[in-house]
Amino acid sequence: MIKAILIFNNHGKPRLIRFYQYFAEDMQQQIIRETFHLVSKRDDNVCNFLEGGSLIGGSDYKLIYRHYATLYFVFCVDSSESELGILDLIQVFVETLDKCFENVCELDLIFHMDKVHYILQEVVMGGMVLETNMNEIVGQVELQNRMEKSEGGLSAAPARAVSAVKNMNLPEIPRNINIGDINIKVPSLSPF
Amino acid sequence: CFYFRLTLSNNTSLFLQQAKYISTCIDEIKQELKQDNIAVKANAVCKLTYLQMLGYDVSWAAFNIVEVMSSSKFTYKRIGYLAASQCFHEGTDVIMLTTNQIRKDLSSPNQYDTGVALTGLSCFVTPDLARDLANDIMTLMSHTKPYIRKKAVLIMYKVFLKYPESLRPAFPRLKEKLEDPDPGVQSAAVNVICELARRNPKNYLSLAPLFFKLMTSSTNNWVLIKIIKLFGALTPLEPRLGKKLIEPLTNLIHSTSAMSLLYECVNTVIAVLISLSSGMPNHSASIQLCVQKLRILIEDSDQNLKYLGLLAMSKILKTHPKSVQSHKDLILQCLDDKDESIRLRALDLLYGMVSKKNLMEIVKKLMLHVDKAEGTTYRDELLTKIIDICSQSNYQYITNFEWYISILVELTRLEGTRHGHLIASQMLDVAIRVKAIRGFAVAQMATLLDNAHLLTGNTQRNGICEVLYAAAWICGEFSEHLEDPMQTLEAMLRPKVATLPGHIQAVYVQNAAKLFATVLQKHEGETDSQVAQETSQLLIERLPLFVQSANLEVQERASCIIQLVKYIQKLQQKNVEVADEVTALFAGELNPVAPKAQKKVPIPEGLDLDAWINEPPSESESEDEKPKSKAVFAKEEPKHSRRHTEVDEKELARRREVRKQEQANNPFYIKASPSSQKVFDAPGVEHIPVVQIDLSVPLKVPGMPMSDQYVKLEEERRQKDKADKKKKDKKKKREKRGKGRKADSGPESEEDITPAQQVDIVTEEMPENALPSDDDDKDPNDPHKALDIDLDKPLADSEKLPVRTHRPEVLKSPAEDRENESIPQESKKKSSKEKKEKKKDKEKDRKRSKEEKKKKKKHKEVEEELMESQPEEAVQSEDTKEMAVPPTSAEASDLDFWLSSAPVPPAAQVRSLTLSPPPLLIPLSVCRVVNERLFCISPSGLSRFLTSLCLFSLLFTGLAHFCLFAYACFS
Fold first, then answer.
1. Distance from CA of A71 to the nearest CA of B (A)
2. What is the DSSP letter of B750?
3. Of B37, B259, B341, the CB nearest to A84
4. For a Cys staple, B148 with which of A124, A129, B143, B686, CB 3.0–4.6 Å?
5. B57 to chain A, closest Cα gap in Å
6. CB contact under 8 A, A192 and B15
């Protein structure tokens, strides 16, 4: 069983969290912080398995992670999962993201968190691996997106307009974003 | 753009600003949720999902989420289900509103509506939802679309967990899915069954043939890995299965290119080998193959493979240490790895690789690492490992305790370690339990005390000063071995001692008194009483410092002893001989007591431990007296002594007789050696089991301890021993020839190495009627055990409850279980059905003696009725369709048939072996108890124990003296 899937950036900011066992929100944040603390101090050329993470699981659980550019993908699994298998799965997941977003980067995860969730749902369901074939995953995701489009999608809704109107008090929204910048400038604020 | 603004606010470095911004966002979301437009609502819910990720509790919007979930548009429904899956849980009350919506979605013609509902449900399914929807999900398992089928199959696991009763009715269909044409569905079914079987393997043994077929036919590595892992869990229950598995697994190991698969195969082969470990000589090839493959993994440049290789290696180590030991070089090499996880794994392996022969070498290598280690955590880990390695199995591998003591002393030079306490307890343990080493240990400890300033560089948060505690105690207790007790006494009373933690000071003071007694003893005979008087003077000068101590225990002990010394000084001036009487205060040997011994002492009849000895002091009395009496004298102690004095001699003698009788009959008791000297007659104290290992002539090595030097000396000694033996024993000549000293893996027999010291390891004391093996850890009320049962729940026959689709009868035995299979069931007429069933059961019982064939026929009929069959129900191997086999006892018939290709012991025998713990286990657990806490008395406990012992000896041996002493105090 997979107990949790956490994606956070190099500063520990969560970008996607998916717990397959209930934890209250503050506990979730604590787990993210602890996991980040454990993972971030490791070099890139050491092994990808980590034991201990006192908050989640216990001795039966392992953290299996991969580090891609600015993001850490961490899977917390128990002993019924194959370690190398999960590493492959992370790779499959990231490659799928890459296919769906075309050169995925951290910003894609920020702006399309929901879509990332939908993709993840095609890979892992309720803590168990659902599908490992990338073509199958991408196919299902695309079919669902097509369906959404045929319904008009969320973008056609007036929702965006509503929030845009209420947006007045903010300083102007930059039109073109330098992708690299945002990641670097994000200060390591303590998450709230 | 909502997300975008959040990111922007991250950029603004002010945390407050961000919090403020989010609170306005939440207000905005609340406004949006109030609108009727579902699109606006969905958008708001989507934002909430994002905020939830950031740690905000969004449960207040649960109802709105349900609203969005029930939208007819897929776009919004998906958002709703996503939000629900992120923040709903069993405590969410609106969940019960969703039941009908989810049911509707599950039966939606649109497969993605169904898919989204299933995915969402998998995250927030509750027992109620599981009960209400189990049937719908079960129907979905045979949906036409594989996309739905695989999701439905997977979610069944969650349903089983929440609603165990559904397992039986759903299982036949789940089993069917193992052979689904779609690989995704197949893999999902394997996944679920593996997950179920992991918790309760024995109920799934009957599926072994089917899985075996899958394993040999499937090409999907995911499925293969799962199946192979499952077999790893099954083999311990059925060794015959293991035999059958070895061949295909070996083939897989040879053929596969996927490392993950290879690794799992190796792992399962190891599990098989462990289950077969007894009497299977022809499997050495498999072990060799595993070890060889693991070696390849460990040598790989990929750190992950290296890590896993070491992990699997440690599993082999438990049963086949020999085959791992030949790769010692590789493992030692891993100790130098830059990756800490790998170093830790390698350390674990070292634990099992030591032998008498290579212990010194390995520890030497570890000591080098200790010096090099950069982080304190890793260094501390090394330290504990060194101690673990050396002390394992009751110091089995240590041939030279002088060497060990010097290693411990060297370890004290580590700065900032947290494990001073551990080193201290090892020193105490070795000094107490290995009598031959006491002289050496005392000399070393005296040096330590003399150089105490080196250890206590900064007293604050310096764990290493704990070592002084042990040093002081050893020097005091075994002071007869001290060469210059006077000097040690001086070292123990230096003013700097007052900066040590209180409990250490207390031990210092107490042991100073012991040293004082020794000095008196030594010098009494001499005509010149100068030295003795000087000693008294020294104590009288130095002790007042401790009398002023803030620590109550130090204060009390110091003032007690200072009065004693003053009195003795007076006597000395009158030339009275006091040495014998002072020594009597500390007479008697302290022996190690098993950690749980105190708990096992039965409370004597009529003794009320909670009763007051004296009436409690009235409220008006000063406060500070209470803690004092509590801290220094454990309440029970005076009580026991009082009790003991009441028992007359006859009674004592009788009891002792009875106890001896009991001990003689107790196989776990090692007989007390007659040589151990006893002083007090308190029951239970005089039985000190001593293991005498008389092996060779002691070797005395004087001087400062440098462990390296011992390694050399030890080698010389061993060589000499060998030479001696060679002369004496010509038979062994052949074995010894051609064995270079450096050949580590050489099969030199362990017996050739004789310990340098005469080692008598004193075992720990236990009250006579307590077995060391009845471990408190196996407490039946252990919450973990309760959890275990809970996990097993889905399958426990006795816990079956009436369900609509399911027979309500509670099953009693596997045999009955088998019979019940053939009873048709209906969901509605429960009571009548029950009756019917009972009747049928009886009938069946009568027919039980019928032949297998008839039964099987019946089972075949049953197969057609889907709802009623059993989870354990037999496997249907493709080719033998009619061989439907009932569970457990009857299951054996099929499994036996399947397994019978290999000659095997009868199943019953195997089972009984696995069920009843082999007798060997008990001594092993004794070793564990010993290993876990080598020195039984905790530091604070020790001081208390010593105090009370002091009191004891005062009571029993020097009662008259005590009166004198008291008289002197008052006068």
1. 16
2. G
3. B259
4. B143
5. 6
6. yes
Nearest Cα of chain A lies from the Cα of B261 at a distance, in angstroms, of 8
Which of B64, B122, B198 should one mutate to test binding to chain A, selecting the residue with the greatest count of A CBs within 10 A? Answer: B122
Q: How does strand A124-125 pair with strand A14-19?
A: unpaired
Question: What is the residue-wise DSSP string for A28-44?
Answer: HHHHHHHHHHHHHTS-T
Give the pLDDT score at B668: 54
- 8 Å CB contact between B823 and B868: yes
Phi-psi region of B245 (alpha: psi -120 to 50; beta: other; left: phi over 0): alpha
A88/B151 CB distance under 8 A: no
CB-based contact, B113 to chain A, within 8 Å: no
User: CB–CB of B338 and A43 under 8 A?
Assistant: yes
Determine, for residues A126 and B55 on separate chains, whether the beta-carbon distance falls below 8 Å: no
For B643, the token pair is: 């009790």
- B142 part of contact set with chain A, CB < 8 Å: no
Quick check: helix, strand or coil at residue A4?
Answer: strand
| Residue whose tokens read 């080493």 | B437
- B420-456 per-residue burial string, b: 16 or more CB within 10 A, e: under 16: bbbbbbbbbbbbbbbbbbbbbbbbbbbbbbbebeebb
Query: Residues near B1 by Cβ (< 8 Å), separated by ≥ 6?
Result: A160, A163, A164, A167, A173
CA A69 – CA B57 distance, rounded (Å): 30
Rounded Cα gap, residues B554 and B537, in angstroms? 20
If chain B, 971 residues long, is cut into consecutive pieces of 10 residues, what is the mean pLDDT of each piece? 50 69 90 88 91 89 91 91 91 88 91 92 90 91 91 92 87 88 90 87 85 86 89 84 84 85 87 71 75 85 87 82 80 81 83 80 84 76 85 80 86 77 86 84 86 65 77 86 83 82 87 86 73 84 86 89 89 81 81 76 81 75 44 41 50 70 59 41 45 40 52 69 60 44 40 53 59 44 35 42 39 41 41 49 49 47 41 38 39 57 40 33 34 36 49 49 53 50
Alpha carbon distance B501, B467 (integer Å): 12
Judge whether A165 is closer than 8 Å to chain B, CB to CB: no
> At B382, is the secondary structure helix, strand, or coil?
helix
Identify the closest residue of chain A to B33 by CA–CA distance: A159
Is any Cβ of chain A less than 8 angstroms from the Cβ of B308?
yes
Give the pLDDT of residue B700. Answer: 35
Tell me the CA end-to-end span of chain B in Å, nearest whole number. Answer: 92
Nearest to A154 by CA among A143, A145, A167: A145
Alpha carbon distance B84, A151 (integer Å): 22
Chain A residues in contact with B191 (beta carbon < 8 A): 128-129
Q: What's the pLDDT at B676?
A: 39
- Residues of B in Cβ contact (< 8 Å) with A45: 303, 338-339
